[in-house]
């Protein structure tokens, strides 16, 4: 067979393209929801962290999994919980972010060692391992990653009792003199998008730029016919 393998390869690559488009569209939609409902997103992440910590404890007590894996996993989620104090603002140089990133890497290493060396995991499939790590390691960091869309689009003090960076009582006392500048910066912040949103806005702007260029290269007679047809 010569044609059938070509059809299979073409279908496989088309599947990858469609999957990437669907994934990007889904992430864009979720980022818009997070930007619109920041407080609800904070509550969802809060409950998710508590549930995952509870699952760690169940794995320790019920399944007798290694305490080292459980300790690093719980420690990482404790840092995630501390990061909620400034949510949706995330400072990459803060102790909480650096600690959570380090513990996340260590958690991957210890869990991989467990899956490779423990006799109970001798017949564990790749799908089983990915499903386990999705809940135990990836779901909360992925939620924070999606929440970066709302990092610059939320007004100071709108996410909870903890004061956000860049806004203090001194700013509130001087708000009468700088209210116009503050409103301008807030409006600019609400128009800012994350990496996903900027990508789609870039594509949209490119479409608006390319269409006039294409129409300008068309012969004038076609443009004249189009204008006459519109006139009629």
TrEMBL record:
GO CC annotations on file: COPII-coated ER to Golgi transport vesicle; endoplasmic reticulum membrane; Golgi membrane
Cited PANTHER family: PROTEIN TEX261, TEX261 PROTEIN
InterPro entries: Svp26/Tex261
Keyword Signal: no
Ranges annotated as spanning the membrane: 6-31, 95-116, 128-150
Family note: Belongs to the SVP26 family.
GO molecular function: COPII receptor activity
One GO BP: endoplasmic reticulum to Golgi vesicle-mediated transport
Alphabetical UniProt keywords: Membrane, Transmembrane, Transmembrane helix
Subcellular localization: Membrane
The keyword Nucleus appears for this protein: no
Main location: membrane
Record's protein name: Transmembrane adaptor Erv26
Topology term for the membrane: Multi-pass membrane protein
Pfam families: Erv26
Signal peptide start-end: none
């Amino acid at each position: 067979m010569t044609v059938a393998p070509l059809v299979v390869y073409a279908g496989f690559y088309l599947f990858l393209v469609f999957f990437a488009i669907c994934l990007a569209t889904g992430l864009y939609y979720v980022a818009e929801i997070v930007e619109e409902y920041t407080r609800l997103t904070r509550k969802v992440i809060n409950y998710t962290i508590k549930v995952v910590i509870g699952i760690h404890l169940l794995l320790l007590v019920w399944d007798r999994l290694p305490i080292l894996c459980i300790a690093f996993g719980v420690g990482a989620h404790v840092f995630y919980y501390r990061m909620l104090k400034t949510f949706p603002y995330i400072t990459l140089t803060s102790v909480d972010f650096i600690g959570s990133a380090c513990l996340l890497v260590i958690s991957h290493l210890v869990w991989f060692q467990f899956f490779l060396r423990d006799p109970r995991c001798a017949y564990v499939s790749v799908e089983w391992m990915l499903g386990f790590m999705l809940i135990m390691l990836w779901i909360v960091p992925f939620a924070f990653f999606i929440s970066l869309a709302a990092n610059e689009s939320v007004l100071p003090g709108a996410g909870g009792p903890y004061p956000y960076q860049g806004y203090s009582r001194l700013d509130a006392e001087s708000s009468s003199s700088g209210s116009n500048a503050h409103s301008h910066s807030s409006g600019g912040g609400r128009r800012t998008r994350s990496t996903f949103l900027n990508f789609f806005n870039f594509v949209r702007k490119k479409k608006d730029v390319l269409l006039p260029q294409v129409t300008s290269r068309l012969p004038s007679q076609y443009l004249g016919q189009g204008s006459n047809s519109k006139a009629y």
